[in-house]
Specification:
alpha+beta, six-stranded antiparallel β-sheet, about 25% strand
Length: about 700
């Protein structure tokens, strides 16, 4: 009578299918003739080898699970089987526990069309189920179209449909955040245990989901608790079995990511998923990947648009002021707001040192004005500020410290968990760096770098303009101070000189020789001319520094014009020019300081006489008239005119028209500047209405009329 093992061997041979048996130790103990014909390996070659040897790529944890099915009673899977001569082939493998060992039934896989009728029906059912899931998703999202554009809103809809695929399993969807690419954030779950995980963060390292992401392939196990560092979390739900699938973008997202997240199906029983379930899960995971890819692309597009809006807002904000301190304060406030930072500071770089020019800090410890070595700013031992400055690149790090600090400033820095330093590069130099930090456990990511770089590009130009403006202001102030001092110092000797010349002219020291008369008159005229120049310098300095005293009265503008024309007639005769005035018949009442308005008209007439030419009709014409609610004084000449391209500058301080073919007329270039400033302080305006080279110019003074 045959023994029990012999009976078992004969029974296996009689099946006609490729059957392999493994013992308690996971090694092959039986190998049928059909298995030999299918694989090309004889029983002598196969028996004694680990069962995992039969399957291509089965090693490590997978091999251990194949040896004893992980404690499960049965497993069905599509596995890659070794073959001696024609490489590997796909086989439908069904494993069943038999006593202390296992028995494996292997059937070669064909296409769906080659499958028997039952399998074809399963394919049809699979296709219909996925189609219904897509339709249901569209129907649910149709009630809220915004759900199709938001990963967070769409996630609960996806997992709800995912659970329909395997009703006895729980479904959990997680994403890989850009700021922490080595972690998962659980977005949605279907099932009591899965729902309790929503909002939690899982690491890649030590988890089966992380292993699936790293290897970019699905992983299924009935030993989930043993293979994961999340044993306590899994014990909360009594979870033993899981199938984890990585979700990847087929094309890189704008921020460079490919890893989207993972979707997992979990069971309490130690029972593998069927091939049919795995196929459904795989196709569903593909649908989820495409959906997440779409929403993340939309999110990236929105964030890019937001960054551009931030850039435009920052450019407008920084351009609103040329005050360097105000520009810096606006910049760091914008940087803190745009990146969600708890601290933002601008560091001025000076050789091997830096100084905190300005800072904002939620802890209330800005600590500005301190100077430290660049190399003293470290994070995890790295000189992060020095790296940013030398490499001209942004540097991400944890919280940083500055050597030799032992005060509240050090405490403020020590509390930062994540930091980002951006060098501000201008003409291959790094004059400053922008540093932001967070105290929350949320690292800065590529989006924050892009935002800060956009701010930096705008900021470096704004800071340069502000610095140049500050330097120009300082130069102007020094020039004004010098001119003011020089004018004051000249006034006293001029007064004395003018007094003695007047006394000589009047004969107060006795009658001098007759030949002295003309030189004395010339000296008196030149001292008066110099006195007017000094007064113009003083007046220009006072106009620039702020308000000046004014004696405002009601007055007929015609009388001021008559007086100005009368004062100018001697000079007109002296230069050989002709001066004509037209004053009108109607009163033109204005509220003004007569001296100030008289000076404006004097300057316009003298300017015209300076550039006069001996022509007909009269060279200089002065008129006054009403124009609506304004009184207008017009001064027209037929002189040299203003060259093209400089009309907008003639009201600037000290601006003179330089023409090589003419002698340089006397003057300081302050007359039109003073006139424009005085007119503006009376609510009026001095303008160049018309000018042509060698044809003349037309200037006007406009003042508001009394009602």
């Amino acid at each position: 009578m045959a023994s029990s093992p012999e009976i078992a061997r004969r029974a296996l041979e009689a099946l006609g299918d490729a059957v392999v048996a493994a013992g308690r130790d996971g090694r092959i103990s039986a190998w049928t003739g059909a298995a030999a014909r299918l694989t090309g390996y004889s029983a002598r070659e196969a028996i004694g080898r680990p069962i995992a040897w039969l399957f291509e790529g089965a090693d490590g944890e997978v091999a251990a699970e194949l040896a004893d099915l992980g404690g499960a009673d049965r497993m069905e899977a599509i596995l890659t089987v070794r073959r001696r001569r024609r490489g590997v082939f796909q086989a439908a493998a069904t494993a069943t526990r038999l006593g202390a060992g296992t028995a494996w039934l292997l059937k070669p896989m064909g296409s769906w069309l080659d499958l028997p009728e039952a399998a074809g029906q399963a394919y049809s059912d699979w296709n219909q189920r996925l189609g219904s899931i897509v339709r249901d998703l569209m129907d649910m999202a149709g009630q809220d179209l915004a759900a199709l554009d938001s990963t967070e809103t769409l996630a609960p809809l996806l997992v709800a449909q995912g659970q329909r695929i395997v009703p006895d399993a729980e479904c959990l969807l997680s994403v890989v955040p850009r700021e922490r690419p080595d972690h998962f954030v659980i977005l949605a779950g279907a099932g009591a245990w899965a729902e309790s995980q929503v909002g939690r963060t899982w690491p890649w390292l030590g988890t089966v989901a992380g292993l699936a992401m790293s290897q970019r392939r699905p992983i299924e196990t009935v030993r989930l608790m043993e293979r994961s560092n999340l044993r306590h979390t899994l014990e909360e739900g009594g979870i033993h079995t899981g199938r984890l699938l990585p979700l990847w973008s087929t094309e890189p997202l704008p921020d460079g990511r490919h890893a989207l997240g993972a979707i997992g199906f979990y069971r309490k029983d130690q029972a593998y998923f069927t091939p049919y379930e795995r196929r459904l899960i795989a196709e569903f995971a593909l649908l989820v990947s495409l959906t997440l890819q779409r929403t993340e692309l939309g999110r990236s597009t929105q964030e890019t648009m937001q960054r551009l809006r931030v850039g435009v807002d920052v450019a407008l904000d920084l351009a609103a002021s040329l005050n360097q301190r105000e520009v810096i304060r606006r910049l760091i406030n914008r940087a803190a707001s745009a990146t969600g930072a708890d601290r933002a500071s601008l560091l001025l770089i000076d050789g091997s040192d830096y100084m905190v020019e300005d800072a904002v800090d939620s802890s209330g410890v800005p600590a500005v004005g301190r100077r430290h070595p660049i190399a003293a700013v470290k994070s995890d031992g790295r000189p992060v500020l020095q790296l940013a400055v030398t490499q001209r690149l942004p540097v991400l790090s944890g919280g940083f410290v500055v050597d030799s600090l032992d005060d509240s400033y050090a405490d403020a820095l020590d509390s930062l968990k994540h930091s980002l330093i951006l060098p501000l590069v201008l003409s291959d130099e790094v004059p400053a760096a922008l540093a932001v930090g967070r105290r929350s456990d949320l690292p800065f990511g590529v989006g924050d770098i892009a935002t800060l770089q956009l701010l930096g590009n705008v900021a470096v130009l704004a800071l340069r303009n502000a610095r140049l403006f500050a330097e120009a202001e300082e130069a102007n102030r020094m020039r004004s101070d010098f001119l003011n001092m020089a004018a004051h110092e000249l006034r006293t000797p001029l007064t004395v000189l003018h007094g003695y010349l007047s006394m000589l002219e009047e004969g107060s020291f006795g009658r001098g020789p007759e030949r002295w008369g003309q030189p004395i008159q010339t000296l008196v005229g030149k001292t008066e001319e110099l006195g007017h120049l000094v007064e113009d310098l003083l007046l220009a300095s006072r106009l620039e520094s702020g308000p000046i005293p004014a004696d405002v009265v009601r007055i007929d503008l015609r009388s001021l014009v008559r007086d100005a024309v009368a004062r100018a007639r001697p000079r007109a005769r002296l230069v050989g020019g002709r001066l004509r005035g037209r004053f009108g018949a109607d009163e033109l009442m204005v509220v003004a300081d007569p001296d100030h308005v008289g000076k404006i008209i004097d300057n316009l007439i003298n300017n015209a006489l300076t550039y006069v030419r001996d022509t007909e009709p009269p060279a200089v014409s002065v008129s006054v008239r009403r124009d609506g609610v304004e009184a207008v004084v017009s001064v027209a000449d037929r002189g040299r005119g203003v060259p093209e391209g400089v009309g907008g500058r003639i009201f600037e301080r000290f601006f003179r028209v330089e023409e090589g073919r003419h002698d340089r007329p006397p003057g300081t270039g302050l007359g039109l500047y003073i006139s424009s400033e005085l007119a503006g302080r009376h609510g009026g305006q001095v303008a160049l209405d018309w000018s042509r080279p060698d044809q003349g110019s037309h200037f006007s003074l406009r003042l508001p009329l009394l009602p």
